[in-house]
Design brief:
Shape: globular
Protein name: adenylate kinase
Order of helices and strands: HHEHEHHHEHEHEEEEHEHEHH
EC number: 2.7.4.3
Radius of gyration: 19 Å
Family: Belongs to the adenylate kinase family.
Structural class: alpha/beta
GO molecular function: AMP kinase activity; ATP binding
CATH class: Alpha Beta
Catalytic activity: AMP + ATP = 2 ADP
Strand content: 5-15%
Distance between the termini: 31 Å
């Protein structure tokens, strides 16, 4: 289901844009103006130094710059999968805050012990840490000349949404929905290749429809033979932790969803099944069917 229609008219290509450096500068100002307390306020007026980007209404001339989209959705819903596919299709960087956290954990940096405790308990990482990691990632994007982005996992709190709103213009927020029993099975079936870092899922989900809801089938996403013996389970993918993550997410996400809904930027998309069934329907909801055909033919 969709709350609004959306259209992207241009072929995927990289465009130069001053917006990433401006966003980076503004986020650094906002981060430095706040204390380390999770409940501390943020001086959004600081964003005026970097200059918030001019609003680009839906239906704009897409050649002005690449898209700036956000993916919302519960842990395990498939944000990374679909954001990555759209990133490749549109030629913009996919920035997943979950990946940024895992990279920081594996780096054994100064934040690693604190992050490990938070992640293993299924809690949300503090706004300050997430914003700092995101700022560093945007700096790397700017250095490589990238423009536009698809954010995955940010914002998760109303405070993060307000910070993002203060420093840049988000064109569209795609909110992926999936029934909770399927979500739980997906999270428990996730596997990671310890060698190449590839993400797979061994869960085969086959849920019979009831109360007027259709059947749902989501086949497993199995690894290639050379990865099969190297699969590991993420430390936070236990049933207890997954249920806690879903509870925390549902509690924190409602204000964020309403924040973007009230601004006419929220596209709610219920996943009908696995990738083969859901991907074409998502492209249709985004009016990207022709775009996909052009890319395939190129």
């Amino acid at each position: 289901m969709a709350a609004l229609s959306y259209q992207v008219l241009r072929p995927a290509r990289a465009l130069s844009s001053p917006k990433l450096p401006s966003l980076l500068f503004s986020i650094r100002l906002l981060t430095s103006s706040s204390s380390s307390s999770i409940g501390s306020g943020v001086d959004l007026q600081a964003a005026s130094f970097g200059g918030p980007s001019q609003g680009v209404p839906l239906g704009r001339d897409p050649n002005q710059r690449n898209v700036q989209w956000v993916f919302l959705g519960c842990p395990g819903v498939g944000k990374g999968t679909y954001a990555s596919r759209l990133s490749n299709l549109l030629g913009v960087p996919h920035i997943a805050t979950g990946d940024l956290v895992r990279e920081e954990l594996s780096s054994s940096g100064p934040l690693a012990p604190q992050l490990a405790e938070v992640v293993n308990q299924g809690k949300l990482v503090s706004d300050e840490i997430i914003i700092n990691l995101l700022s560093n990632r945007l700096q790397a994007s700017a250095a490589k000349g990238e423009s536009g982005f698809i954010l995955d996992g940010f914002p998760r709190t109303i405070r993060q949404a307000e910070i993002l709103e203060g420093v840049t213009d988000i064109d569209l927020v795609i909110n992926l929905k999936l029934r909770e029993d399927a979500l739980l099975a997906k999270c428990l079936g996730r596997r990671l290749c310890s060698e190449c870092g590839g993400n797979y899922n061994i869960a085969s989900i086959d849920i019979k429809g009831e109360d007027g809801n259709p059947d749902m089938y989501m086949p497993p996403l199995l690894p290639p033979p050379h990865c099969a013996s190297k699969l590991i389970t993420r430390a936070d993918d236990t049933e207890e932790v997954v249920k806690e993550r879903l509870r925390v997410y549902n509690e924190m996400s409602r204000p964020v969803e309403e924040f973007y809904r009230s601004r006419g930027k929220l596209l709610e998309f219920g996943l009908p099944g696995g990738i083969p069934e859901s991907w074409p329907k998502l492209l249709r909801a985004l009016n990207l069917e022709d775009h996909d055909k052009q890319s395939a033919a190129a």
